[in-house]
UniProtKB/TrEMBL annotation, chains A, B:
One of its GO terms (cellular component) is cytoplasm. It comes from the Eukaryota. Residues 1-16 form the signal peptide. This is Annexin. Keywords: Annexin, Calcium, Calcium/phospholipid-binding, Metal-binding, Repeat, Signal. Belongs to the annexin family. The keyword Calcium applies. It comes from Salvia splendens. The keyword Ribonucleoprotein does not apply. InterPro entries: Annexin (IPR001464), Annexin_repeat (IPR018502), Annexin_repeat_CS (IPR018252), Annexin_sf (IPR037104), AnnexinD_plant (IPR009118).
Length: 306, 306
């Protein structure tokens, strides 16, 4: 019953694409992967074009972009966002770090598989080709690593590597082999243990010590990697905060975070957001966006209308 | 019928482990993965020890090592060999390059998964930790890459990257970012196209130009990577040739190549071996080995007794 009802709704959406936003919102807002797949098939059959191709066009509005991103499977969405980031890569672009450091190792492999299928190339190939120097040295191993995902921690190693980090940071050798090796290959649990040791031993959070020159784009990227690995929800809260507080709102960042985290850790991100900004995320979004785009974002973050 | 017969034989083998070599040879020689899995379970139940652990011990003879390697699944075997290579790593150790460059991208991911499961770490983590300088710069991306495995080739790119290779090799910048990037991230098909362009344009095989200093271990490793990527069977023929021709035979290399290639490309390797050495591989093995070890190798390479 439910399935045929869903299909009817989907057909309706596809036929009236662009004119039946409320229906799209109510379907995609429910975040059901198989329904999304249907939308995608429907889109291809109705428009003779793949959703991913449609995404590549200049989209007329933010609503369309969030709908298209949501209709993709998570690995395909990550592959798409990562590809977009390599093509538009600048030193201030944090999306590659965000994807490489917040997805689980398994999900990262799935995203790399989806990248092969879609772009007939590997993700690391494009990252290596489009970046240079220290940025390449950090980004290529970040997107290539397949970290161990268990909780096992070697405390002796954590101590010795905390010391290495301290030495290299004190000497301002931020892009040295050791810092890159530790951040790009160790498991999240191991990195967390190392950074705890760092704080115990040397007093500061490592990210505080990596703030020597706040305008240095490489240091900013290193800090983003650390934050994404250890406190992903705090990282996303900050991206949302900056996107919303920006004069004119950064819809690109807002759309990306909501579309990629809705089913993952949005609840925690919302809690951290409210604590940090003294206003609930849904209120902040209401203030900065409007129309169907606003409705879609609110549905996705689980806003309940009163 | 066949299955219960196999199980009976296996039980017999396990109970009489070490005293029933002919049976072991006839079973493992048949190269059936599910039978091998049974041997492994049997071994664990009978000896209270996992085969992988047994491999770590000082093995009393070459026969045992080939049996133990064969009883592992290919991804687990690769993980085991790679781990052994990182622990015993020296500049002349080519095993990491061999594994990273001759396995399919999918198989390499499976080996990395098996590495997690067995060693509670990632392969790239151990490689980065145990290597240094130029060797690390080459080996970490080699074992981390998940290359595109399709046949699509960009000829324009092949031309431009052949030119880059030529410039860097002429300037003797063998460990520069570009050479490493091209060899570690491009697909096999793309690398092959680039090396063809290199030969067309500049007259030599790239490996000939990488022979500036035949004693330079880094150059030797680069050449091994190129050969493994483009002509894996020729690479393995040479490893076998050197192992057999060596004063005293290099059983480690002989065992490894036979155990890992038996089900993959041994037929082609044998043909190349005979052409290059004017003697069939089985004859060469007969001359250099004896007893159960000899029988096992011959069974594995598909020697038919007359």
């Amino acid at each position: 019953m439910l399935t045929s009802l869903a299909i009817c709704m989907l057909l309706n959406v596809c036929v009236g694409w662009g004119t039946n936003e409320d229906l799209i919102i109510s379907i995609l807002g429910r975040r059901n992967a198989s329904q999304r797949k249907l939308i995608r098939q429907c889109y291809a059959e109705t428009y003779g074009e793949d959703l991913l191709k449609a995404l590549d066009k200049e989209l007329s509005n933010d609503f369309e972009r969030v709908v298209l991103l949501l209709a993709l499977d998570p690995p395909e969405r990550d592959a798409y966002l990562a590809n977009e980031a390599t093509k538009k890569w600048t030193a201030s672009n944090r999306i590659l770090v965000e994807i490489a450091c917040t997805r689980s190792p398994k999900d990262m492999i799935l995203a790399r598989e989806a990248y092969h299928a879609r772009f007939k190339k590997s993700l690391e190939e494009d990252v290596a080709y489009h970046t240079k120097g220290d940025f390449r040295k950090l980004l290529v191993p970040l997107v290539s690593s397949y970290r161990y995902s268990g909780d096992d921690v070697n405390l002796h190693l954590a101590k010795s590597e905390a010391k290495i980090l301290r030495e290299k940071i004190t000497a301002k050798e931020y892009s040295c082999d050791d810092i890159i090796r530790i951040l790009t290959t160790r498991s999240r649990a191991q990195i967390n243990a190392t950074l705890n040791q760092y704080k115990n031993e040397f007093g500061n959070d490592v990210n505080k010590d990596l703030k020597e020159d706040p305008k240095d784009e490489f240091l900013t990227l290193l800090r983003a990697a650390v934050k994404c690995l250890v406190y992903p929800e705090k990282y996303f809260e900050k991206v949302l905060r900056l996107a919303i507080n920006k004069l004119g709102t950064d819809e690109g960042a807002l759309t990306r975070v909501v579309a990629t985290r809705a089913e993952v850790d949005m609840q925690t991100i919302k809690e951290i957001y409210e604590k940090r900004n003294s206003v609930p995320l849904d209120k902040a979004i209401c203030k900065d966006t409007h129309g169907d785009y606003e409705k879609m974002l609110l549905t996705l973050i689980g806003h309940v209308e009163e």
